[in-house]
Amino acid sequence: PLMLTILGLVASAGTLYLGTHVADISIWAMNFALMFALALGIDYALFIVHRFRAAHWGSSEDVRHAVATTMDTAGKAVLFSGLTVLVSLSAVMLVPSPAFRSMALGIMVSVLFVLLASLTLLPAVLARLGDRVDALSLPWVHGGEHRSARFAAWGERLWRRPLGFGLIATVALVALAVPVLGLKTGMPSIKVVPEDDSSRQGYALVQAGFGAGAPGALQIVASNADSAAVTEILASDPGIAMTMPAQPNAGGELVLVQAMPTVDPSSPELGATIDRLRTALPAEAFLGGAAAENHDLEELLSEKTPIVMGVVLVLGFLLLLVALQAPLMALLGTVTSLLATAAAFGVSRLVFQEGIGADLMGFESQGFLDAWGPVFFFAMIFAISMDYTVFLLASAKEHWERSGDAREAMVGGIAHSGRVIFAAAGVMVAVFFTFALSGPLPPREMGIVLGVAVLLDAALVRLLLLPVLMRLTGRSAWYVPRWLGRVLPKVTFSH
């Protein structure tokens, strides 16, 4: 799994490098693509290899038929999981920002290569290895155990006492999600740079010598005739500490006036000052500068984030509906993924806004979450959550199609996918938390938020809450109206 993932990463890195020759790509694109593709690639490979072992060793199928069985079951689940991830990330493209689009596109390219490697190269390698797939492995993996006795017992326990376990999971997730109501966002401040970096030290010297707002000077371009009016408006505004003399251009028809705000460029108060000045300045005057650009981008993100979230939810539900052929189960999968995402955002507020654990993890709280976080984190957390949803429910649907029994679907789904979900989640958490150990704040934010999200999703949602909901809804969870069955493409997970 690791070697195939690395091959996918190398291919995506090469593609991103070639992309830099035709378009501007964010400096974070490669970091985020590496993080995401490494975690998902190992996930997909684990799921496929585990299913191959079960078919070959557990069911005594020959190598050729074992590969066919694997791709007809686990292969379909991986395909739908990958499509869900790609669709979720594609919604970020709705934000009209080249930097954001390049980051989303970079992650999508890496996921696409890893998905292709999992669906083409990995089956070929398994067919070639055959019995040698377990060479040098631990002795107990040769049993071909596809149905875990421990997770089967866990499923039976959930079946007998669904309300108690469901209440525990729901209360825990809701309690973690509540802090999201007070989540604040802002554009990254100088605090994202390590304290010992020369750029941060120079930033501090500028502020100490010339005022808090000196690094974020506002630039106003106006006609020469409006020069006096612009200077007067700036001088009378309480958010402006100092105004530079107007500088005419070569032709003399335009002037540039620079104004120093009273607050740090990352302060929310500066946004109010910018909005106030744009209203007061002459219609032909334009206010710009790095601080104004950040403010405009933050406003754009606030406007587009609800749209992106809505698109992700709708498309995720539709993909689950096609995969599972069961409206209620698709809805339950989508809602539980949303709950896990909300809980992860609640934790992100406690860590990055309130600073809980910041000293332990070696970073300084900005007092808010980066404004790009909600739109990006939502798409990625929801994609990962749906990844595990597909793994669990595809296995449950396979048992439902074979038995027609709701209990066997729920218990069998956990017994056959629980161990893989547990192991894959452990790998993902390790990968994400590794990126949270050092470096600038943005990768740390992503590593911590995604790591916590995977931990909560696997432990409380996929292996607890969602099985409980399957138990409570019973056969109705798998019901599909006749008219809908005729509309949807036929997808099965049994072989």
Helices, strands, pairings?
Layout: H1 2-19, H2 29-58, H3 63-90, H4 98-129, H5 149-160, H6 162-177, E1 185-186, H7 198-210, E2 218-223, H8 227-236, E3 240-243, E4 247-248, E5 254-261, H9 268-280, E6 286-288, H10 290-324, H11 327-353, H12 358-361, E7 369-370, H13 373-403, H14 406-435, H15 441-473, H16 482-487
Helix pairs in contact: 1-2, 1-4, 2-3, 2-4, 2-14, 3-4, 3-10, 3-13, 5-14, 6-11, 6-15, 10-11, 10-13, 11-13, 11-15, 13-14, 13-15, 14-15
How would you describe this structure in keywords?
495 residues; mainly alpha; Multidrug efflux transporter AcrB transmembrane fold; Alpha-Beta Plaits; 2 domains; two-stranded parallel ribbon; 7 strands
Concise summary:
Helices cover 68% and strands 5% of the residues.
**Share in β-strands:** 5-15%
- What proportion of the residues is helical, as a percent range? 55-70%
CATH class of the largest domain: Mainly Alpha
CATH superfamily of the largest domain: Multidrug efflux transporter AcrB transmembrane domain
